[in-house]
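Hello again, I could really use a second opinion on something today. For a while now I've been wondering how a particular protein folds. Please have a think about how the structure follows from the sequence. Here's the protein in full, and shout if anything looks odd to you:

***
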Amino acid sequence: MKLVSYKKKNGDDDWRIGCIHQDSVIDLQASYRVMLLSENGEEALPPLNEVFPSNSSDFFLRGIDLIEKANQAYDHIVENNMEAHFIKRETVTLGNPVPSPSKIICVGKNYADHVAEMQSEIPKYPVLFAKFTNALIGPEDAIEKSPSTEKLDYEAELVIVIGKQASKVKKENAGDYIAGYTIGNDTSARDLQKRTPQWLQGKSLDRSTPIGPCVVTGDELGDASSLAIKSYVNGEERQSSTTSNLIFDIPFLMEFISDLITLNPGDIIMTGTPDGVGFAMDPPQFLKDGDRVTIEIERIGRMENTVRSY
Protein backbone atom coordinates (compact mmCIF):
# COMPACT_ATOMS: atom_id res chain seq x y z
CA MET A 1 0.00 0.00 0.00
CA LYS A 2 0.89 3.64 -0.45
CA LEU A 3 -0.33 5.20 2.79
CA VAL A 4 -1.17 8.91 2.87
CA SER A 5 -2.49 11.55 5.21
CA TYR A 6 -5.21 13.48 3.39
CA LYS A 7 -8.10 15.88 3.72
CA LYS A 8 -10.57 17.19 1.20
CA LYS A 9 -9.84 20.56 -0.35
CA ASN A 10 -12.00 23.51 0.72
CA GLY A 11 -13.27 21.55 3.69
CA ASP A 12 -12.94 21.62 7.46
CA ASP A 13 -12.26 17.92 7.86
CA ASP A 14 -9.35 16.69 9.97
CA TRP A 15 -6.44 14.85 8.40
CA ARG A 16 -7.32 11.21 7.76
CA ILE A 17 -5.37 8.07 6.95
CA GLY A 18 -5.87 6.76 3.44
CA CYS A 19 -4.06 5.00 0.64
CA ILE A 20 -3.47 5.67 -3.03
CA HIS A 21 -5.32 3.57 -5.59
CA GLN A 22 -4.60 4.53 -9.19
CA ASP A 23 -5.81 8.17 -9.46
CA SER A 24 -7.83 8.04 -6.24
CA VAL A 25 -7.49 8.00 -2.47
CA ILE A 26 -9.32 5.40 -0.40
CA ASP A 27 -10.17 6.23 3.22
CA LEU A 28 -8.89 3.34 5.31
CA GLN A 29 -11.03 3.73 8.43
CA ALA A 30 -14.18 3.89 6.31
CA SER A 31 -12.97 0.87 4.34
CA TYR A 32 -12.37 -1.07 7.53
CA ARG A 33 -15.89 -0.27 8.69
CA VAL A 34 -17.35 -1.50 5.40
CA MET A 35 -15.36 -4.73 5.68
CA LEU A 36 -16.54 -5.35 9.24
CA LEU A 37 -20.15 -4.67 8.29
CA SER A 38 -19.94 -7.17 5.47
CA GLU A 39 -18.53 -9.80 7.83
CA ASN A 40 -20.46 -9.24 11.04
CA GLY A 41 -23.28 -6.74 10.53
CA GLU A 42 -24.07 -3.49 12.33
CA GLU A 43 -24.76 -5.07 15.71
CA ALA A 44 -21.24 -6.46 16.04
CA LEU A 45 -19.49 -3.25 14.96
CA PRO A 46 -16.98 -2.13 17.66
CA PRO A 47 -16.24 1.53 18.52
CA LEU A 48 -14.31 2.30 15.37
CA ASN A 49 -11.70 4.76 16.66
CA GLU A 50 -10.69 2.26 19.33
CA VAL A 51 -9.80 -0.44 16.82
CA PHE A 52 -8.89 1.64 13.77
CA PRO A 53 -7.98 5.32 14.26
CA SER A 54 -8.92 7.81 11.56
CA ASN A 55 -5.71 9.88 11.51
CA SER A 56 -2.19 8.97 10.47
CA SER A 57 -0.54 9.93 13.78
CA ASP A 58 -2.52 7.36 15.74
CA PHE A 59 -2.48 4.90 12.86
CA PHE A 60 1.31 4.55 12.77
CA LEU A 61 1.49 4.33 16.57
CA ARG A 62 -0.44 1.06 16.26
CA GLY A 63 2.28 -0.33 14.04
CA ILE A 64 2.47 -3.23 11.64
CA ASP A 65 -0.56 -5.09 13.02
CA LEU A 66 -2.86 -2.24 12.05
CA ILE A 67 -1.21 -1.92 8.64
CA GLU A 68 -2.14 -5.55 8.01
CA LYS A 69 -5.78 -4.77 8.88
CA ALA A 70 -5.65 -1.74 6.60
CA ASN A 71 -4.39 -3.92 3.77
CA GLN A 72 -7.32 -6.30 4.24
CA ALA A 73 -9.77 -3.38 4.19
CA TYR A 74 -8.18 -1.92 1.08
CA ASP A 75 -8.35 -5.28 -0.70
CA HIS A 76 -12.03 -5.61 0.25
CA ILE A 77 -12.90 -2.26 -1.34
CA VAL A 78 -10.86 -2.84 -4.51
CA GLU A 79 -11.82 -6.47 -5.08
CA ASN A 80 -15.50 -5.58 -4.74
CA ASN A 81 -15.04 -2.53 -6.99
CA MET A 82 -16.72 -0.19 -4.49
CA GLU A 83 -16.15 2.95 -6.53
CA ALA A 84 -18.23 5.05 -4.13
CA HIS A 85 -15.23 4.87 -1.79
CA PHE A 86 -12.76 6.17 -4.40
CA ILE A 87 -11.94 9.85 -3.77
CA LYS A 88 -10.44 11.61 -6.77
CA ARG A 89 -6.81 12.58 -6.10
CA GLU A 90 -7.29 16.14 -7.38
CA THR A 91 -9.96 16.80 -4.73
CA VAL A 92 -7.66 16.19 -1.75
CA THR A 93 -4.58 17.72 -0.16
CA LEU A 94 -1.83 15.42 1.08
CA GLY A 95 -0.17 16.06 4.42
CA ASN A 96 2.88 14.61 6.13
CA PRO A 97 2.05 10.89 6.35
CA VAL A 98 4.06 10.51 9.59
CA PRO A 99 3.37 13.81 11.39
CA SER A 100 4.09 12.92 15.03
CA PRO A 101 7.09 10.62 15.43
CA SER A 102 8.44 10.36 18.95
CA LYS A 103 11.94 10.35 17.44
CA ILE A 104 13.40 11.72 14.21
CA ILE A 105 16.86 10.21 13.84
CA CYS A 106 19.02 11.45 10.99
CA VAL A 107 22.18 9.94 9.57
CA GLY A 108 24.90 12.24 8.28
CA LYS A 109 27.82 11.45 5.96
CA ASN A 110 26.25 8.24 4.66
CA TYR A 111 27.15 8.45 0.95
CA ALA A 112 30.87 8.41 0.10
CA ASP A 113 30.55 10.93 -2.75
CA HIS A 114 28.71 13.35 -0.46
CA VAL A 115 31.42 12.92 2.20
CA ALA A 116 34.01 13.79 -0.43
CA GLU A 117 32.19 16.86 -1.74
CA MET A 118 31.87 18.14 1.84
CA GLN A 119 35.65 17.67 2.24
CA SER A 120 35.21 15.30 5.13
CA GLU A 121 36.29 11.76 6.00
CA ILE A 122 34.40 8.47 5.76
CA PRO A 123 33.05 7.83 9.26
CA LYS A 124 33.85 4.64 11.17
CA TYR A 125 30.40 4.67 12.74
CA PRO A 126 27.09 6.21 11.62
CA VAL A 127 26.93 9.94 12.34
CA LEU A 128 23.61 10.46 14.14
CA PHE A 129 21.76 13.67 14.90
CA ALA A 130 18.16 14.60 15.65
CA LYS A 131 15.38 16.74 14.32
CA PHE A 132 12.17 17.72 16.08
CA THR A 133 8.57 17.65 14.91
CA ASN A 134 8.47 21.47 14.58
CA ALA A 135 10.58 21.01 11.44
CA LEU A 136 8.23 18.60 9.69
CA ILE A 137 5.85 19.63 6.90
CA GLY A 138 3.85 17.80 4.27
CA PRO A 139 4.64 17.00 0.64
CA GLU A 140 2.59 19.92 -0.68
CA ASP A 141 3.61 22.54 1.91
CA ALA A 142 6.05 25.40 1.44
CA ILE A 143 9.56 25.10 2.88
CA GLU A 144 9.87 28.13 5.13
CA LYS A 145 13.15 29.99 4.74
CA SER A 146 13.98 31.61 8.06
CA PRO A 147 15.58 35.08 8.02
CA SER A 148 18.21 33.52 10.32
CA THR A 149 19.86 31.75 7.37
CA GLU A 150 21.30 32.81 4.03
CA LYS A 151 22.54 29.31 3.14
CA LEU A 152 19.51 27.05 2.97
CA ASP A 153 20.29 23.75 1.22
CA TYR A 154 18.38 20.65 0.07
CA GLU A 155 19.14 16.99 0.85
CA ALA A 156 17.19 14.16 -0.80
CA GLU A 157 16.83 11.19 1.55
CA LEU A 158 15.18 7.81 1.87
CA VAL A 159 13.22 7.69 5.13
CA ILE A 160 12.52 4.54 7.16
CA VAL A 161 9.24 4.40 9.10
CA ILE A 162 9.32 2.12 12.14
CA GLY A 163 6.41 -0.31 12.52
CA LYS A 164 7.23 -2.23 15.68
CA GLN A 165 9.12 -1.48 18.89
CA ALA A 166 12.75 -2.20 18.11
CA SER A 167 15.51 -2.76 20.65
CA LYS A 168 18.71 -4.74 20.05
CA VAL A 169 17.53 -5.71 16.57
CA LYS A 170 19.79 -7.93 14.48
CA LYS A 171 20.53 -6.99 10.88
CA GLU A 172 18.98 -10.14 9.48
CA ASN A 173 15.66 -9.31 11.19
CA ALA A 174 15.61 -5.58 10.44
CA GLY A 175 12.79 -5.77 7.90
CA ASP A 176 10.42 -7.18 10.54
CA TYR A 177 10.47 -3.81 12.31
CA ILE A 178 9.95 -1.53 9.32
CA ALA A 179 6.44 -0.32 8.43
CA GLY A 180 7.55 1.23 5.16
CA TYR A 181 9.55 3.93 3.44
CA THR A 182 8.98 7.51 2.34
CA ILE A 183 10.85 10.54 0.97
CA GLY A 184 12.42 13.27 3.07
CA ASN A 185 14.20 16.53 2.35
CA ASP A 186 16.66 17.17 5.18
CA THR A 187 16.69 20.88 4.42
CA SER A 188 19.78 22.33 6.08
CA ALA A 189 20.84 25.85 7.02
CA ARG A 190 24.55 25.44 6.30
CA ASP A 191 25.62 28.68 7.97
CA LEU A 192 23.85 27.70 11.21
CA GLN A 193 24.87 24.04 10.94
CA LYS A 194 28.58 24.82 10.65
CA ARG A 195 29.01 27.62 13.15
CA THR A 196 29.33 25.08 16.00
CA PRO A 197 30.46 21.42 16.17
CA GLN A 198 26.84 20.36 16.79
CA TRP A 199 24.58 20.41 13.72
CA LEU A 200 21.16 20.64 15.39
CA GLN A 201 20.55 24.38 14.96
CA GLY A 202 20.96 24.12 11.21
CA LYS A 203 18.84 21.01 10.88
CA SER A 204 15.60 21.65 12.76
CA LEU A 205 14.30 25.08 11.73
CA ASP A 206 10.54 25.50 11.91
CA ARG A 207 8.58 24.07 8.96
CA SER A 208 11.65 23.26 6.92
CA THR A 209 11.60 19.49 6.40
CA PRO A 210 9.07 17.98 3.98
CA ILE A 211 8.10 14.31 4.28
CA GLY A 212 5.94 12.34 1.83
CA PRO A 213 4.02 12.03 -0.35
CA CYS A 214 3.24 8.54 0.93
CA VAL A 215 4.61 5.70 3.02
CA VAL A 216 5.08 2.67 0.80
CA THR A 217 4.75 -0.47 2.90
CA GLY A 218 7.64 -2.88 2.88
CA ASP A 219 5.64 -5.66 1.25
CA GLU A 220 4.85 -3.43 -1.74
CA LEU A 221 8.22 -1.71 -2.09
CA GLY A 222 10.33 -4.84 -1.63
CA ASP A 223 14.11 -4.53 -1.51
CA ALA A 224 15.12 -0.96 -0.63
CA SER A 225 18.84 -1.50 -1.15
CA SER A 226 19.12 -0.14 -4.70
CA LEU A 227 16.50 2.55 -5.20
CA ALA A 228 17.27 5.43 -7.54
CA ILE A 229 17.21 8.79 -5.72
CA LYS A 230 17.24 12.20 -7.41
CA SER A 231 16.69 15.86 -6.60
CA TYR A 232 15.98 18.87 -8.80
CA VAL A 233 15.88 22.61 -8.17
CA ASN A 234 13.65 24.51 -10.59
CA GLY A 235 13.79 21.50 -12.90
CA GLU A 236 17.61 21.25 -12.93
CA GLU A 237 18.93 17.88 -11.77
CA ARG A 238 21.20 18.27 -8.76
CA GLN A 239 21.48 14.83 -7.13
CA SER A 240 21.40 11.40 -8.76
CA SER A 241 22.41 8.22 -6.96
CA THR A 242 21.01 4.97 -5.58
CA THR A 243 20.61 3.62 -2.08
CA SER A 244 23.15 0.94 -3.02
CA ASN A 245 25.71 3.68 -2.36
CA LEU A 246 24.85 4.02 1.31
CA ILE A 247 27.94 3.57 3.47
CA PHE A 248 25.82 2.11 6.28
CA ASP A 249 22.88 0.25 4.76
CA ILE A 250 19.40 -0.08 6.20
CA PRO A 251 19.89 -3.37 8.10
CA PHE A 252 23.12 -2.03 9.62
CA LEU A 253 21.41 1.21 10.67
CA MET A 254 18.52 -0.66 12.26
CA GLU A 255 20.93 -2.81 14.28
CA PHE A 256 23.25 0.07 15.21
CA ILE A 257 20.55 2.56 16.22
CA SER A 258 18.31 0.08 18.06
CA ASP A 259 21.30 -1.06 20.10
CA LEU A 260 21.54 2.48 21.47
CA ILE A 261 17.95 3.75 21.34
CA THR A 262 14.64 1.91 21.53
CA LEU A 263 12.67 2.73 18.40
CA ASN A 264 8.87 2.92 18.57
CA PRO A 265 6.15 2.60 15.94
CA GLY A 266 5.89 5.85 13.98
CA ASP A 267 9.52 6.87 14.57
CA ILE A 268 11.48 7.79 11.46
CA ILE A 269 15.09 7.43 10.36
CA MET A 270 16.42 9.74 7.63
CA THR A 271 19.20 7.71 6.03
CA GLY A 272 21.46 10.39 4.55
CA THR A 273 21.87 12.27 1.27
CA PRO A 274 24.00 11.65 -1.83
CA ASP A 275 26.34 14.13 -3.48
CA GLY A 276 25.08 17.15 -5.42
CA VAL A 277 24.01 19.48 -2.63
CA GLY A 278 24.06 23.22 -3.23
CA PHE A 279 26.77 23.88 -0.65
CA ALA A 280 29.31 21.85 -2.68
CA MET A 281 28.64 23.49 -6.06
CA ASP A 282 31.12 25.96 -7.54
CA PRO A 283 29.97 28.54 -6.74
CA PRO A 284 27.59 27.33 -4.00
CA GLN A 285 23.90 27.47 -4.91
CA PHE A 286 21.53 27.99 -1.99
CA LEU A 287 17.75 27.98 -2.01
CA LYS A 288 15.91 31.26 -2.60
CA ASP A 289 12.35 32.42 -2.20
CA GLY A 290 10.24 30.84 -4.93
CA ASP A 291 12.60 27.95 -5.74
CA ARG A 292 10.95 24.59 -6.44
CA VAL A 293 12.68 21.56 -4.90
CA THR A 294 11.69 18.17 -6.32
CA ILE A 295 12.79 14.82 -4.92
CA GLU A 296 12.14 11.46 -6.54
CA ILE A 297 12.80 8.00 -5.15
CA GLU A 298 12.15 4.91 -7.25
CA ARG A 299 8.98 2.98 -6.33
CA ILE A 300 7.97 5.62 -3.78
CA GLY A 301 7.16 8.66 -5.87
CA ARG A 302 7.83 12.34 -6.24
CA MET A 303 7.62 15.27 -3.81
CA GLU A 304 7.80 18.94 -4.80
CA ASN A 305 7.94 21.90 -2.42
CA THR A 306 8.31 25.62 -2.99
CA VAL A 307 10.61 27.74 -0.82
CA ARG A 308 8.95 30.70 0.89
CA SER A 309 10.84 33.41 2.80
CA TYR A 310 9.16 34.93 5.85
In short: The two ends are 37 Å apart (CA to CA). The mean pLDDT is 95. The longest strand covers residues 209-217.
